[in-house]
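#structure-requests
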Amino acid sequence: MQLQIFTVDAFAKKPFSGNQAAVVPLTQNLDDATMQKIASEMNLSETSFLAPLNTDGPDEWKTCSNFSLRWFTPVTEIVLCGHATLAAAQVLFQNLGNTNNKLEFQTLSGTLVARKEGDLILLDFPENEPVSLTSEEEQELSPLVEAALGEAKAGARTVAISHPLKYLMVQLDDSCTRHDLEAIRPDARAMERLHDGSKVKAVIVCVKGRLEEEEKEKEKEAKEGERKERDVWSRFFAPWYGVDEDPVTGSAHTVLGPFWSRRLGKKELLCHQCSPRGGEVTVRTRGDGRVDIIGQAVTVISGHITL
């Protein structure tokens, strides 16, 4: 049996940036073990599996607007993934010729919506605002925070947790810069040893944008005809999912968006994830328990996988 497979760079304007995801349009059912093996074979942070719902016929990939969507890391299935959802929408819109401007995905996190807006794709996701740690959680997770920050001089100002996603969010002190964030070298193996993944599956480290941090971007962006000021810089570490550092993480911005929206007094934030590949995510908080995650994507590989 052969299945189509695509590799997409999500939250990217050009190839070889942003976050890679594989997308497999399913023409027949696969068992969970086979999907996990495909994800392990691809060895990307996520592989997504798509199947049309409530429709049939030779043009179902073009006409259907309702799909089942599942995401697998190299080691396990996960409940929410932003960049692999963006990649799935990109494949449907650009590679499979879907004629709808709005798509619905049935997932482990409920119904997720993707809308095409020019060259952008907007994802309608549940917000996952983090809450303060209890004193017991602070004591239990303090060694994990230290391992995530490594030997960097950057200090933590706020530590909070999003329980639905099991994401621990570490906000660096406002005196810290993007350079301090990029200098962090987490000890992923120590993180795994210090915590069994029961309460925390990933760690977000973030810092507020600073105007002086933007200076080195001016010349580059002037050439591209744009000038942007980032509101939030972040990194994302998930060794419990088999991903020591994720390049750009849509789900993390369902945590960052509501947290920073309250602190900065802004409904729309421009965020940059500072991995070596890097990528930008616009987050729009709506006040109804949902956030819009907005970005671009580029398909870089298309082919077939033989089973």
